[in-house]
Amino acid sequence: MKRHSVLPGFSITLGFTLTYLSLIVLIPLSATFLKSATLGWEGFWTVVTSPRVLASYKLTFGAALIGATINAVFGLLVAWVLVRYDFFGKKLVDALVDLPFALPTAVAGISLATIYSSKGWIGQFFAPLGIKIAHTPLGIVIALTFIGLPFVVRTVQPVLEAFDTELEEAAASLGANRLQTFQKVILPTLVPAILTGFALAFARAVGEYGSVIFIAGNIPMVSEITPLLIVTKLEQYDYAGATALAVSMLVVSFGMLLAINGLQRWTEMRRA
């Protein structure tokens, strides 16, 4: 029996798919590589390995990893509360999770810089202790954690909702305590979703600009992120240098995401 499809045939849909991907993804990426190639290998290597750029790499990828890791832990906790408990204001809390998606990044950056400054609502309590948050790498981590939380929550939440609670009851009836039930029954099911949310939060954090520049302070060698250096080079009409930094970030990000996806696949194969 021939399977009916409401969409056009395979050739037409594949053609539209490849055309769309080429216009949105492949052609811009190819242009980036071609533009950076005009520097030559020595020029390219000089640009992407200067001390100031290396310091920005360390801060950008390090803060993104820390923020994504924090979100992997607390995003799981938030998803757990939203799925497993009913409480007053639950819908409001659920809506607040998506706030980083809806809030303009510049607004988020200004708000975070104001709140965590030495005279802000939160920063004023840390200032007497000698802990400065705004205009430091710590402020960048907070900003990247803020914008990455929804990715983990919204990835883990559907898996928790579909999880059969009878498995937990069976584990408890066999003598497993709460920790054993979580480690042996629940967590293996959630690991692929957690890794996916982690990868999405990390990818978003690496390229984040608007919510970071206001709280970062943009001090060279201290709190300057790589996306800011790219914008700076563009403002100086150094397009080749800007695309060189973009290519280096793209390669490193792709490698890290590939490793995370490989870990996720390995975890799924072990479960099978």
Task: Give the topology, please.
Layout: H1 10-37, H2 40-48, H3 51-84, H4 90-97, H5 99-102, H6 105-115, H7 123-126, H8 137-162, H9 165-173, H10 178-206, H11 210-216, H12 226-235, H13 239-271
Summarize the structure in short.
The chain is mainly alpha-helical and 272 residues long.
Tally of DSSP β-strands:
0
Give the rounded overall mean pLDDT: 87
String of helices and strands: HHHHHHHHHHHHH
Strand content: under 5%
Low-confidence runs of at least 5 consecutive residues? none
Question: What is the radius of gyration?
Answer: 22 Å
Distance between the termini: 32 Å
* Portion of residues within helices: over 70%
Structural class: mainly alpha
Major sheet summary line: none
Give the overall shape. globular
Number of helices: 13
What key attributes describe this structure?
single chain, 272 residues, mainly alpha, 78% helix
Describe this structure in words.
The protein is mainly α and 272 residues long. It is 78% helix and 0% strand. It contains 13 helices and no strands. Helix 10 runs antiparallel to helix 13 and helix 12 runs antiparallel to helix 13 (239-271). It is globular. The mean pLDDT is 87.
